[in-house]
Amino acid sequence: xxxxxxxxxxxxxxxxxxxxxxxxxxxxxxxxxxxxxxxxxxxxxxxxxxxxxxxxxxxxxxxxxxxxxxxxxxxxxxxxxxxxxxxxxxxxxxxxxxxxxxxxxxxxxxxxxxxxxxxxxxxxxxxxxxxxxxxxxxxxxxxxxxxxxxxxxxxxxxxxxxxxxxxxxxxxxxxxxxxxxxxxxxxxxxxxxxxxxxxxxxxxxxxxxxxxxxxxxxxxxxxxxxxxxxxxxxxxxxxxxxxxxxxxxxxxxxxxxxxxxxxxxxxxxxxxxxxxxxxxxxxxxxxxxxxxxxxxxxxxxxxxxxxxxxxxxxxxxxxxxxxxxxxxxxxxxxxxxxxxxxxxxxxxxxxxxxxxxxxxxxxxxxxxxxxxxxxxxxxxxxxxxxxxxxxxxxxxxxxxxxxxxxxxxxxxxxxxxxxxxxxxxxxxxxxxxxxxxxxxxxxxxxxxxxxxxxxxxxxxxxxxxxxxxxxxxxxxxxxxxxx
Length: 483
Known about the structure:
Shape: globular
Strand content: under 5%
Strand order of the largest sheet: 1-2-4-3
Oligomer: single chain
Number of helices: 24
Largest sheet: 4 strands, mixed
Order of helices and strands: HEHHEEEHHHHHHHHHHHHHHHHHHHHH
Low-confidence stretches: 1-14, 152-178
Helix content: 55-70%
């Protein structure tokens, strides 16, 4: 007789009720606009690239399997935000936004475990769980619910600071206002599990993450795992995931050098405090270091170098770098991370020309952003600014919502004396973070500047500014009306 297996295809719990996809997106835009202003929001190109790669693979799998409808695919943002918070948490927001705390990145043992969390949160969105919860509260409008979420954010950060909006408090907001039912949690598990293999991840990552959650639950959560409160773990959920593994199980997720180094980066950038940074800086000198597995050694060395740089101790960071580079020799992704870190160390130490030599031309967003920052600090490298401006222009044309790239492009154009272009890029950076009022202000400043110019290039730029101003003014009117 064939062994019993978990049912792989179950009916969904329903559609989004009375909340349209457009309404849900507008609600999410209003919340995310405030989170972008939060000082805990962090745009770290290295970590963002890693999380985005996993996120995009899961989105592609959801499209292929039919879990992501064409309407949601088109209307939702599908943006990821990182929060500089040491608590272990991730959360989905209306409109296809995903928040991930650095604390979560720092504890997951492999890319598969991280992918399991992202897949679960993605499934909350694709299955319209948020919209259905909003629809259930039929006495409140979506905008009132959005205000309540932001109020919970402010209260969780500081009860005395009404205007303080913290990504770290999102767990409380989701728990209080968007508390998913057990059925929704199980559905998100089931759908998310089905995305893992098609997206290129080991389904065992789900079980591995559940084991971590179980362990945290057993030792009585002390507040560092908000994910447990907003996503309560039950024995039924654990058993369901285990039953979905192939007969005999599957190979456990193996930590890679790259993942270990990125997890170490997340831990350091979460601002653990000077004493902890000094401990990490000294860890490679410990007597037990040589007995650690290779992946763990690379992670410890990476954390030590970055911690020394954060402490403004460049000589110590430079002394540790050769050991890190030797530890990752022969592993291209890990070697790339070590090379980028070496450039960061030099840039933090004020040696921009040296940093520029360490970042090769080409590469991904981390190389582009780091190379641009190094060039801006290297007066002798000014002739290369035009080439980098062209690369940044190409990037923002393909990624128009990349506010960080727009802001860097504004700095490059300003360094070149192209003030009109710089003003437009600043406006686009504000628009990318849904701050339409600030964007309109900068576009109008560009119009004033254009009236004083008579060059043909500025005439073309002025036409672009006029067109973009009308579009953003329309968005601002909609935003104001919703308030």
